[in-house]
Design goal:
The structure holds two protein chains of two kinds. Chain A is an alpha+beta fold. Chain A folds into two domains: 1-279, Gyrase A, domain 2; 282-368, Aminomethyltransferase beta-barrel domains (Elongation Factor Tu (Ef-tu), domain 3), CATH 2.40.30. Helices cover 23% and strands 33% of the residues of chain A. Chain A is built from ten helices and 20 strands. Chain A has helices at 2-5, 14-19, 40-49, 69-76, 124-135, 157-163, 202-213, 223-232, 259-264, 270-279; strands at residues 9-10, 23-27, 30-35, 51-55, 60-65, 89-95, 101-111, 114-119, 141-145, 147-153, 176-177, 184-186, 195-201, 218-220, 283-290, 301-303, 309-319, 324-332, 341-346, 349-356. In chain A, the strands form four sheets. Chain A has a six-stranded mixed beta sheet. A six-stranded antiparallel β-barrel of chain A has the order 15-18-17-16-19-20. In chain A, strands 6-7-8-5-9 form a five-stranded antiparallel beta sheet, with helices on one face. In chain A, α3 (40-49) packs across α8 (223-232). The N and C termini of chain A lie far apart (44 Å). Chain B is of the alpha+beta class. Chain B has one domain (3-121): RNA polymerase II/Efflux pump adaptor protein, barrel-sandwich hybrid domain (OB fold (Dihydrolipoamide Acetyltransferase, E2P), Beta Barrel), CATH 2.40.50. Chain B has four helices and nine strands. Chain B has helices at residues 26-32, 79-82, 86-89, 114-121; strands at residues 3-6, 11-16, 19-24, 35-39, 46-47, 52-58, 62-66, 71-76, 98-102. In chain B, the strands form two sheets. Chain B has a six-stranded antiparallel beta sheet. Chain B has a three-stranded antiparallel beta sheet with strand order 4-6-7. Chain B is globular, with a radius of gyration of 13 Å. The chains are: A alpha+beta, B alpha+beta. Chain A binds chain B through residues 23, 34-35, 39-41, 44, 224-225, 227-228, 293-295, 297, 317-318, 320, 325, 347, and chain B through 31, 33-34, 36-37, 39, 55, 57-62, 81, 84.
């Protein structure tokens, strides 16, 4: 902890969050607003009812461009970058040689030879190193961008943007464009709701945030509610639900890797992934619903009725919209079916917990 | 007349006729955020000062509440099973956690009074 504090980075809009009364905490090397005076419960519910504004400037944007950029991305990720239309976004992964998950990414095609990559804060430095090493064999460049990055999430997000003078109504879910020079906007998010992620030059950040917050449908939402929202939506948090010890097969993320990409097998980790696919996973990522009210959290071990250890929880907490505790974890493959009843060991108590389909709260994306 | 004491772990202890009622302070509930579950102990359990006695769970995290003094659990606030948010809305009142019979009232002298606690939290 103490070694970290000196290098903890502050967000460009730190002063705005302070003025808004944010409670701060360290996350992935950044001092982040965890919650605001409304509290995590209200922030969470407000996002699902109206529109929540999240400062996600800790996440890293990379612009990659050059004649070989599509081939580079197809090597670095299990992705057919050339198959993306301009303006199309795709969820993809960064794998190591063992098909372990180094990070999950969103890649958006901006032009014939230009893409935007959005990476997690905690992995940004390692990703950059990994991507740069992979880029050496290709004619392309990777440029990390300094941006204020905001997410506006919730059913009112589209109308709020229009009212703020930003028309993104033409976008479907997982589509993006550059509304102004240096700006980057996609219809995407991490809450299960319709919404947008907007990256702008640092000097435009405060004005954009103020403009959006002037709309009474919008309020700041902190990292705590961001976590409960994504958990209800069944979305993975790298470092918890996925990490280098997990692979796309066990993490149930094979939907993100198109079959032709697997068959062509030119991406890093392709060989290992083919072997893992053929062998079948020993465990699988699933949703888990504790019975009763008690949250079951990251690190809790799961047992069968007979007392055999059969899995573990990787994310867990209380779902304000689900009005119940919700969790994500890994269980032995033969038990990875909704309805299977297991037991979570919480401080010595065996609490019943049931394998549940994901998401816990239905996604409300705007299909393109 | 009950006398109220405070600990550095942000608990309050209200003592009347050798029985202490224990809860967390308003400052503590504010730090924890929305409480969604309270794990209560069994009545009759013997406690030593420092024993983890109650677990208060917010949306984000689980936090232990420790026994501030030695004693035996006389009662627990069963209302919290259905209304855990009472810890937020009435931390110093209806959101109390447990009552205990004190084994050594002398231990109370090591705790803070309200003025000292207010100074601690600034």
């Amino acid at each position: 902890m103490s070694g970290n504090e000196q290098t903890t980075k502050t967000l460009p809009l730190q002063d705005m969050h302070k003025t808004a009364g944010a409670r701060f905490g360290a996350f992935a090397g950044w001092l982040m607003p965890i919650s605001y005076p409304a509290g995590v419960m209200k922030e969470h519910l407000h996002t699902r009812a109206h529109a929540g504004l999240f400062d996600i400037s800790h996440m890293r944007l990379f612009e990659v461009s050059g004649p070989d950029v599509a081939a580079f991305l197809g090597r670095a990720c299990p992705l057919d970058a050339d198959a993306l239309d301009i303006g199309q976004s795709k969820y993809t992964l960064l794998l190591d040689e063992h098909a372990g998950i180094l990070d999950d990414l969103i890649v958006t095609r901006l032009g014939a030879h230009r893409f935007m990559v959005v990476a997690n804060a905690g992995n940004a430095a390692a990703d950059e190193k990994h991507l740069k090493a992979a880029a050496q064999d290709f004619d392309c460049t990777l440029e990390p961008l300094e941006r204020v990055f905001l997410a506006l999430q919730g059913p009112d997000a589209e109308e709020v943007l229009v009212a703020a003078g930003i028309d993104a109504t033409h976008l479907g879910f997982m589509q993006g464009f550059e509304p102004r020079p240096g700006w980057f906007l996609t219809r995407s998010g991490y809450t299960g709701e319709d919404g947008f992620e907007i990256a702008v030059p640092v000097e435009d950040g405060a004005a954009l945030a103020e403009n959006l917050l002037a709309d009474k449908r919008v309020q700041w939402v902190g990292l705590a509610a961001r976590d409960s929202l994504r958990l209800e939506a069944g979305l993975c948090l790298h470092g918890h639900d996925i990490d280098p010890s997990t692979d796309p097969v066990s993490a149930a993320l094979m939907w993100a890797i198109p079959k032709p990409v697997r068959e062509k097998g030119v991406f890093i980790g392709a060989e290992a992934l083919a072997k893992k696919t053929a062998a079948g996973p020993a465990e699988k990522r699933v949703g888990l619903k504790p019975e009763g009210r008690q949250p079951v959290r990251d690190g809790v071990e799961l047992f069968s009725e007979s007392g055999e250890r059969v899995g573990r929880v990787t994310s867990g907490g209380f779902g304000p919209s689900a009005e119940a505790p919700v969790a994500i974890g890994y269980v032995a493959t033969e038990l990875a079916r909704p309805g299977i009843r297991l037991f979570a060991d919480v401080r010595g108590n065996r609490l019943p917990i049931t394998v549940h389909s994901l998401p816990f709260v239905p996604h409300r994306y705007r299909k393109g | 007349m009950a006398t109220t004491y405070f600990t550095e772990d942000h608990e309050w202890i209200s003592v009347e006729n050798g029985v202490a009622t224990i809860g967390i302070t308003d400052y503590a509930q504010e730090q924890l955020g929305d409480i969604v579950f309270v794990e209560l102990p069994e009545k009759g359990r013997a406690l030593s000062k420092g024993d983890a006695t109650v677990v208060v769970e917010s949306v984000k995290a689980a936090s232990d509440v420790y026994a501030p003094v030695d004693g035996e659990i006389a009662d627990v606030n069963d209302k919290l099973s259905s209304e855990p948010a009472l810890v937020n809305s009435a931390a110093a009142g209806d959101g109390w956690l447990w009552k205990m019979k004190l084994s050594d009232e002398g231990q109370l002298s090591g705790l803070m009074d309200e003025a000292a606690y207010k100074k601690l939290i600034g």
